[in-house]
Design goal:
Elements (H helix, E strand, L loop, with lengths): L5 E4 L4 E3 L7 E6 L6 H19 L2 E7 L3 H10 L5 E4 L4 H6 L2 E3 L5 E3 L2 E5 L5 E5 L7 H13 L2
Parallel strand pairs: 3-4, 4-5
Antiparallel strand pairs: 1-2, 1-5, 3-8, 6-7, 8-9
């Protein structure tokens, strides 16, 4: 089962796993707003979002950035999904998206999870390649749904 979460959303207010009960969820963790890889990944998911939504799924991104940074990032790149703030990386820890990076530093690991409508993690991308990630997610949701 996917670990529960309740975090501050870029739209204001809180968002939790329970908000997606009965829907597929693409939950992705990324290091930082406005960095090249994170922007490429976010834009790939943005471009694939209509296809993702047509499959009954939503996209949500999580980083340590605050709501103000998320708002600017969303506006600049016309992102069409919510971004959540996890400043103390508690949710990242729960999902295994926090740990040792290159050169022994700890930080956010670029990971994506597909969660089914009953809250089970059914697909984990352990080392996401930002380019084309949205298309890869669409293909995998179709395969998981047998479409």
């Amino acid at each position: 089962m996917a670990p529960d979460f309740s975090l501050k959303s870029s739209e204001g207010g809180q968002m939790s796993l329970a908000d997606f009960k009965g829907k597929w969820l693409v939950l992705y963790f990324y290091p930082k707003d406005e960095t090249p890889g994170c922007t490429t990944e976010a834009c790939s998911l943005r471009d694939a979002r209509d296809d993702i939504v047509s499959l009954g799924a939503e996209v949500v991104g999580i980083s340590r950035d605050d709501a103000s940074s998320h708002e600017k990032f969303k506006a600049k790149h016309t992102l069409n999904f919510s971004l959540l703030s996890d400043p103390d990386h508690a949710v990242m820890d729960a999902y295994g998206a926090w740990g040792k990076k290159m050169f022994g530093k700890e930080g956010v690991l670029r990971k994506t999870f597909i969660i089914n409508p009953i809250g089970e993690v059914v697909k984990v991308y352990g080392r996401v390649t930002p380019v084309g990630h949205g298309e890869q997610v669409v293909a995998d949701i179709k395969a998981l749904q047998g479409v």
